[in-house]
Design goal:
The complex is a heterodimer of chains A (about 475) and B (about 250).
Chain A (H helix, E strand, L loop, with lengths): L1 H15 L9 E2 L6 H11 L3 H16 L23 E2 L13 H9 L2 H8 L2 E6 L2 E7 L1 H5 L3 E4 H7 L1 H7 L10 H9 L4 E5 L9 E6 L6 E2 L2 E6 L4 E9 L7 E3 L2 E6 L4 E8 L5 E11 L4 E8 L4 E4 L2 E4 L5 E10 L4 E10 L5 E10 L4 E10 L7 E10 L5 E10 L5 E10 L2 H9 L4 H17 L4 H18 L2
Parallel strand pairs in A: 3-7, 6-9, 7-10, 8-11, 9-12, 10-13, 11-14, 12-14, 13-15, 14-16, 14-17, 15-18, 16-19, 17-19, 18-20, 19-21, 20-22, 21-23, 22-24
Antiparallel strand pairs in A: 1-2, 3-4, 5-6
Chain B lengths: L2 E11 L2 E12 L3 E5 L6 H9 L4 E10 L2 E2 L5 H6 L2 E4 L6 E5 H10 L10 H14 L10 E2 L5 H15 L3 E5 L7 H14 L5 E6 L3 H5 L4 E6 L2 E6 L2 H9 L1 H13 L1
Parallel strand pairs in B: 3-10, 3-11, 6-9, 9-10
Antiparallel strand pairs in B: 1-2, 1-4, 4-5, 7-8, 11-12
The chains are: A alpha/beta (about 475), B alpha/beta (about 250).
Chain lengths: ~475, ~250
């Protein structure tokens, strides 16, 4: 029964609470100064251009105010001077799980990563605190010329591709947290798919925070060259700590002419993590970028995946599910910047607020006057479970010109007591009834996730619902 | 002990007493009908027996095979064998009929036991055939966008699958055209037998032409005021509820 499952999860979290601190060969200490930057650059052995880049980014970060004039005041509770910005075991990512330190390996085994890799993935990268501990790509995929490695390695091994696109989709000064990431980034994936190559199976990264008072700042850059196709999936977890943890990633995607990128996220951070992520893609002519995003965990998530539709007939899509449980705030949405004729975008967002949870949708759709034949469709649906739950929608839609179309639909619904009674009358417990209703609400979107993820999603929803009733 | 016994039941919604001392016994194998004018408390009775949280039982007991179920949650009552066919079945968007029924059946199994999918579908299809339901029905969301007739058929299908010991059919005939009424009634009749007690709640006699009851009770203002055989329904149809109302003034005062 679910109660037992809950107990199991608690055991999981306790196991995750192991301290690996003593094994951190490198620890930048708490607080963020220019010395921290030099420490990180020196430890990572990075080139000088990155050192300059990071120092400039830190200045931008320090000069930018917190965006609390529009965002949650909870951001003020992040104490930047108490956070550790770099922690690593000091070893290079292994190509084989056998070479990963036993305790770290065990963590990922518990999360099922090696098993998934064997079953259905083309490649896996596993990050533990600041650095990747494992990174591998199936031989056949590598032979097609696909590059999949940690961004730290990539900037050294493939500077010609890396530098060309790095920071181009999301400039350092885009927002306070993209500047922070640019200053202290470590880890994250780099993917390059050569022209015409279609990667059959997904590439996956798993981000694990294990240390308290820590900030994880991975940086991911994916370039799909002309006519290529790739699907990338990321999962993330952290054990439950007493103090706040910060996760602030930057993800840049470049889909060149006719390329297709699907980026799937299942975020299940523990409830003390500030998850402040900037994700954006550029889609060139005929290219398609699809963000499939699921936010279940964290204390506060702020994430608005975007697509800049730069080339004619480019297509952008954001499919997102957010579940805000007691005390959580899922502030998510999408940005669609139309910058060429006949570009289309689609946003479907569903959120569920439980207990005192709050789900916020922010959507930006921009179609300038000179464009023709652009289309946007936005649907956002919110489901409120309790009367204490909250949902907000902030659409910002600018559609100019005469030949463009935009459609925005929003709905808020509640699971009614009558519906729960009906289901209970058929023998389901209140929690089972809730769970089934919520799963029904997100069902059409869950289908967009790869099978393994949709099963996991359903399980996570069941767990959250179990906890939400008496 | 094989009966559903309602004993001196009093039910309130808020401050208003709706059921005012109702007593009725439905043994397994029998079909009882409750008829009554609008506002007599017929639907309140079914919701209260089902355990709806808005209905407060202030007095009395409901014994299912000898066990008082009033302290139990609606789901426990269901798993003990009580079934309510709703007057207004609820829509559950995004949840397919097949998954819903499966979850309901799964909830009846002991912990750790999984419902056997092949058997389940075989049984589901067989019952659907009896109710003349298309196979596409299984993947549609529960009651979403259903016509009145489809919703009622779905209730009877759920009943057939869950195999209750006692079923209360609340205004099952409302919103049905004559063809749907025939199919739904045939579905109920097929389930009649020594292991099922049925309480049919209806405003009109019409339904009782199809589901012929063993006993008919007349409910007025929260009480059973008259009981009789199936011919009582015909008498009511002919003379109207006023005839009963006039008849009860005296005993009610006595």
């Amino acid at each position: 029964m679910p109660t037992e499952e809950l107990a199991n999860i608690d055991i999981d979290r306790t196991r995750g609470d192991f301290r690996y601190d003593e094994k951190h060969a490198f620890d930048a200490g708490t607080g963020l100064t220019h010395d921290t930057i030099d420490y990180i650059v020196n430890v990572k052995g990075e080139p000088e251009w990155i050192r300059d880049w990071r120092h400039k980014a830190l200045d931008i970060f320090l000069s930018k105010p917190m965006p609390t004039h529009w965002a949650s005041k909870d951001l003020e509770n992040i104490i930047f001077q108490d956070i550790r910005y770099y922690l690593s075991g000091g070893q290079k990512p292994s190509r084989s799980w056998e070479d990963v330190p036993a305790d770290v390996k065990r963590t990922f085994e518990r999360l099922g990563i090696p098993e998934q890799e064997r079953k259905f993935l083309a490649g896996v990268e596993a990050q533990f605190d600041s650095e990747a501990v494992y990174s591998n790509i199936k031989k056949a995929v590598g032979e097609q010329g696909v590059i999949f490695m940690g961004s730290t390695e990539a900037l050294k091994e493939h500077p010609e591709i890396f530098r060309k696109w790095f920071g181009k989709v999301i400039p350092t000064g885009d927002n306070k947290f993209s500047a922070l990431n640019s200053a202290v980034f470590s880890g994250g994936s780099f993917i390059y798919v050569p022209p015409g190559v279609k990667v059959k199976h997904p590439l996956q990264a798993y981000f694990r925070i294990n240390a308290e008072n820590f900030g994880q700042f991975e940086r991911t850059l994916i370039i799909a060259d002309e006519g290529s196709e790739v699907m990338y999936m990321e999962g993330c977890t952290a054990p439950k700590f007493e103090t706040a943890t910060l996760h602030s990633a930057v993800v840049e995607l470049v889909a060149l002419k006719g390329a297709k990128i699907q980026y799937v996220t299942v975020q299940n951070w523990s409830a003390n993590v500030f998850n402040l992520v900037t994700k954006r893609a550029v889609a060139h002519e005929m290219a398609e970028v699809k963000w499939i995003d699921c936010n279940i965990g964290s204390r506060l998530t702020m994430k608005y995946p975007g697509v800049v539709l730069k080339g004619r007939k480019a297509r952008g899509e954001v499919i997102s599910i957010a579940l805000a449980s007691d005390g959580q705030h899922q502030d998510t949405g999408a940005k669609m910047i139309h910058a060429a004729d006949e570009t289309t975008s689609n946003v479907v967002s569903k959120s569920i607020s439980v207990g005192t949870g709050r789900a916020t949708y922010r959507g930006l759709v921009h179609v300038p006057k000179h464009l023709k034949g652009c289309k946007n469709n936005t649907e956002c649906d919110a489901l409120l479970i309790n009367s204490t739950a909250r949902t907000d929608t902030y659409p910002a839609i600018t559609v100019r010109g005469t030949g463009n179309a935009c459609q925005h639909e929003a709905s808020v619904s509640q699971i009614s007591a009558e519906q729960i009674f009906y289901m209970q009358q058929r023998g389901l417990t209140e929690a089972q009834a809730m769970s089934l209703s919520v799963n029904g609400f997100v069902n059409d979107l869950v289908r967009e996730f790869p099978m393994e993820y949709s099963v996991e999603l359903k399980r996570l929803i069941d767990l959250e619902m179990e906890g939400s009733v008496g | 002990m094989s009966s559903l016994i309602i004993n001196d039941l009093h039910v309130r919604i808020g401050e208003k007493e709706i059921i005012r001392g109702l007593t009725l016994e439905i043994p397994k194998g029998e079909v009882h009908a409750i008829m009554g004018p609008n506002g007599s408390g017929k639907s309140t009775l079914s919701k209260a027996i089902g355990g709806h949280p808005d209905y407060t039982v202030t007095k009395g007991e409901v014994l299912l095979d000898g066990e008082n179920i009033l302290g139990l949650g609606p789901d426990e009552r269901s798993r003990k064998g009580l079934f309510l066919a709703f007057q207004y079945p609820m829509e559950i968007p995004g949840v397919s009929n097949a998954n819903f029924l499966r979850a309901a059946l799964q909830a009846r199994l002991p912990e750790g036991e999984e419902l056997e999918a092949t058997d389940y579908y075989a049984q589901l299809y067989a019952e659907m055939d009896k109710l003349e339901m298309a196979r596409t029905f299984t993947s549609r969301s529960v009651n979403e966008g259903f016509s009145g007739g489809e919703k009622k058929r779905n209730e009877i299908l759920q009943m057939a699958m869950l195999k209750p010991s006692y079923a209360i059919l609340d205004e099952t005939d409302s919103g049905l055209d004559i063809d749907a009424l025939r199919i739904v009634s045939a579905g109920v009749n097929a389930q009649r037998g020594p292991n099922l007690g049925v309480l049919v709640i209806t405003h009109y006699q019409r339904l009782l032409d199809y589901i012929v009851p063993d006993y008919v009770h007349v409910m007025v203002e929260g009480r059973i005021v008259q009981s009789g055989g199936k011919e009582l329904a015909l008498e009511l149809e002919e003379k109207g509820y006023d005839f009963i109302r006039e008849g009860i003034t005296e005993p009610a005062l006595a």
